[in-house]
Amino acid sequence: MKHLLHAAILALGSLALPAASLAQEPAERWPLAVHGDSGPHDFRVEVADEPAERSRGLMGREHLAADAGMLFLYPDDQAGGSGFWMYRTLIPLDIAFIDGQGRIVSTHTMQPCGSGDPADCAVTRPGVSYRAALEVNAGTFEALDIEVGNCVSWPGAESRCD
Asked: What is the pLDDT of residues 30-43, one digit of tens each?
Protein backbone atom coordinates (compact mmCIF):
# COMPACT_ATOMS: atom_id res chain seq x y z
CA MET A 1 0.00 0.00 0.00
CA LYS A 2 2.83 2.37 0.87
CA HIS A 3 4.38 1.81 -2.58
CA LEU A 4 1.09 2.58 -4.33
CA LEU A 5 0.69 5.80 -2.38
CA HIS A 6 4.25 6.81 -3.19
CA ALA A 7 3.68 6.12 -6.92
CA ALA A 8 0.49 8.20 -6.87
CA ILE A 9 2.29 11.11 -5.22
CA LEU A 10 5.10 10.92 -7.80
CA ALA A 11 2.62 10.87 -10.67
CA LEU A 12 0.63 13.82 -9.32
CA GLY A 13 3.78 15.70 -8.42
CA SER A 14 5.04 15.54 -11.99
CA LEU A 15 1.95 17.47 -13.14
CA ALA A 16 2.93 20.42 -10.96
CA LEU A 17 6.57 20.58 -12.09
CA PRO A 18 7.79 23.27 -14.47
CA ALA A 19 8.41 22.06 -18.02
CA ALA A 20 12.20 22.28 -17.63
CA SER A 21 12.21 19.70 -14.83
CA LEU A 22 10.02 17.36 -16.86
CA ALA A 23 12.70 17.04 -19.50
CA GLN A 24 14.79 14.58 -17.49
CA GLU A 25 15.88 11.66 -19.61
CA PRO A 26 15.78 8.03 -18.58
CA ALA A 27 19.31 6.71 -17.98
CA GLU A 28 19.01 3.82 -20.42
CA ARG A 29 19.20 4.13 -24.20
CA TRP A 30 18.84 1.09 -26.42
CA PRO A 31 19.31 0.42 -30.11
CA LEU A 32 15.99 -0.34 -31.80
CA ALA A 33 15.22 -1.38 -35.37
CA VAL A 34 11.99 -1.33 -37.33
CA HIS A 35 11.98 -4.04 -39.99
CA GLY A 36 9.74 -3.73 -43.04
CA ASP A 37 9.73 -3.70 -46.83
CA SER A 38 11.76 -0.48 -46.86
CA GLY A 39 14.55 -2.15 -44.88
CA PRO A 40 15.58 -1.93 -41.26
CA HIS A 41 15.42 1.57 -39.80
CA ASP A 42 17.67 2.10 -36.80
CA PHE A 43 16.90 4.31 -33.83
CA ARG A 44 18.53 4.99 -30.47
CA VAL A 45 15.67 5.11 -27.97
CA GLU A 46 15.25 6.09 -24.37
CA VAL A 47 13.56 3.35 -22.39
CA ALA A 48 10.55 4.09 -20.20
CA ASP A 49 9.89 0.86 -18.33
CA GLU A 50 8.98 2.23 -14.90
CA PRO A 51 5.62 3.90 -14.12
CA ALA A 52 7.16 7.33 -13.39
CA GLU A 53 9.17 7.22 -16.65
CA ARG A 54 6.11 6.21 -18.65
CA SER A 55 4.05 8.99 -17.03
CA ARG A 56 6.68 11.63 -17.83
CA GLY A 57 7.41 10.36 -21.34
CA LEU A 58 8.68 13.13 -23.60
CA MET A 59 7.01 15.96 -21.67
CA GLY A 60 8.89 19.23 -21.78
CA ARG A 61 11.19 18.28 -24.67
CA GLU A 62 11.78 21.00 -27.21
CA HIS A 63 13.73 18.79 -29.62
CA LEU A 64 14.21 15.12 -30.47
CA ALA A 65 17.04 13.96 -32.75
CA ALA A 66 15.96 12.41 -36.06
CA ASP A 67 17.11 8.92 -35.03
CA ALA A 68 15.89 9.20 -31.43
CA GLY A 69 12.70 8.17 -29.72
CA MET A 70 11.20 6.70 -26.60
CA LEU A 71 10.20 3.09 -26.12
CA PHE A 72 7.49 2.51 -23.52
CA LEU A 73 7.61 -1.04 -22.16
CA TYR A 74 4.90 -2.73 -20.10
CA PRO A 75 5.12 -5.98 -18.15
CA ASP A 76 1.67 -7.08 -19.41
CA ASP A 77 -0.59 -6.41 -22.38
CA GLN A 78 -2.35 -3.06 -22.24
CA ALA A 79 -6.00 -2.80 -23.27
CA GLY A 80 -6.70 -1.23 -26.66
CA GLY A 81 -8.79 1.43 -24.93
CA SER A 82 -5.83 2.72 -22.94
CA GLY A 83 -3.57 5.16 -24.68
CA PHE A 84 -1.29 8.17 -24.74
CA TRP A 85 -1.88 11.89 -24.44
CA MET A 86 0.21 14.91 -25.34
CA TYR A 87 -0.23 16.89 -22.12
CA ARG A 88 2.86 19.09 -21.59
CA THR A 89 4.45 17.58 -24.71
CA LEU A 90 5.90 20.31 -26.89
CA ILE A 91 6.74 18.49 -30.13
CA PRO A 92 4.48 16.53 -32.51
CA LEU A 93 5.11 12.78 -32.39
CA ASP A 94 4.37 9.60 -34.29
CA ILE A 95 3.44 6.65 -32.10
CA ALA A 96 3.48 2.94 -32.95
CA PHE A 97 1.70 0.50 -30.67
CA ILE A 98 3.53 -2.85 -30.63
CA ASP A 99 2.14 -6.27 -29.66
CA GLY A 100 3.88 -8.98 -27.62
CA GLN A 101 5.44 -10.48 -30.75
CA GLY A 102 7.05 -7.19 -31.74
CA ARG A 103 4.62 -6.32 -34.55
CA ILE A 104 3.26 -2.82 -35.01
CA VAL A 105 -0.52 -3.07 -34.58
CA SER A 106 -1.46 0.62 -34.85
CA THR A 107 0.20 3.94 -35.73
CA HIS A 108 -0.88 7.53 -35.19
CA THR A 109 0.47 11.07 -35.37
CA MET A 110 -0.12 13.13 -32.24
CA GLN A 111 -0.05 16.92 -31.92
CA PRO A 112 0.93 18.80 -28.74
CA CYS A 113 -1.88 19.76 -26.39
CA GLY A 114 -1.57 23.44 -25.50
CA SER A 115 -4.01 23.28 -22.61
CA GLY A 116 -2.90 23.59 -19.01
CA ASP A 117 -5.74 21.25 -18.08
CA PRO A 118 -4.93 17.60 -18.80
CA ALA A 119 -8.65 16.84 -19.16
CA ASP A 120 -8.63 18.94 -22.34
CA CYS A 121 -5.96 16.78 -24.01
CA ALA A 122 -7.02 14.09 -26.46
CA VAL A 123 -6.02 10.50 -25.79
CA THR A 124 -4.66 8.43 -28.69
CA ARG A 125 -5.85 4.84 -28.36
CA PRO A 126 -4.81 1.96 -30.61
CA GLY A 127 -8.07 0.02 -30.42
CA VAL A 128 -6.13 -3.24 -29.96
CA SER A 129 -4.02 -4.56 -27.11
CA TYR A 130 -0.33 -3.71 -27.04
CA ARG A 131 2.77 -4.50 -24.98
CA ALA A 132 5.00 -1.57 -26.01
CA ALA A 133 4.81 1.78 -27.76
CA LEU A 134 7.40 3.71 -29.74
CA GLU A 135 7.35 7.51 -30.04
CA VAL A 136 9.46 9.35 -32.62
CA ASN A 137 9.28 12.72 -34.36
CA ALA A 138 6.07 13.26 -36.30
CA GLY A 139 6.45 12.45 -39.99
CA THR A 140 9.12 9.80 -39.40
CA PHE A 141 6.83 6.84 -40.07
CA GLU A 142 5.58 8.29 -43.36
CA ALA A 143 9.08 9.30 -44.48
CA LEU A 144 10.50 5.84 -43.75
CA ASP A 145 7.45 3.79 -44.83
CA ILE A 146 6.99 2.39 -41.33
CA GLU A 147 3.53 0.84 -41.06
CA VAL A 148 1.26 -1.64 -39.35
CA GLY A 149 2.70 -5.15 -39.63
CA ASN A 150 6.34 -4.07 -39.46
CA CYS A 151 8.41 -5.81 -36.81
CA VAL A 152 10.30 -3.93 -34.10
CA SER A 153 13.35 -5.34 -32.31
CA TRP A 154 15.38 -4.15 -29.34
CA PRO A 155 17.70 -5.85 -26.81
CA GLY A 156 15.80 -8.51 -24.88
CA ALA A 157 12.68 -8.28 -27.05
CA GLU A 158 10.72 -11.40 -27.85
CA SER A 159 10.07 -10.12 -31.37
CA ARG A 160 10.18 -12.54 -34.25
CA CYS A 161 11.55 -10.27 -36.97
CA ASP A 162 12.51 -12.19 -40.08
From this structure: 999 999 999 899 99
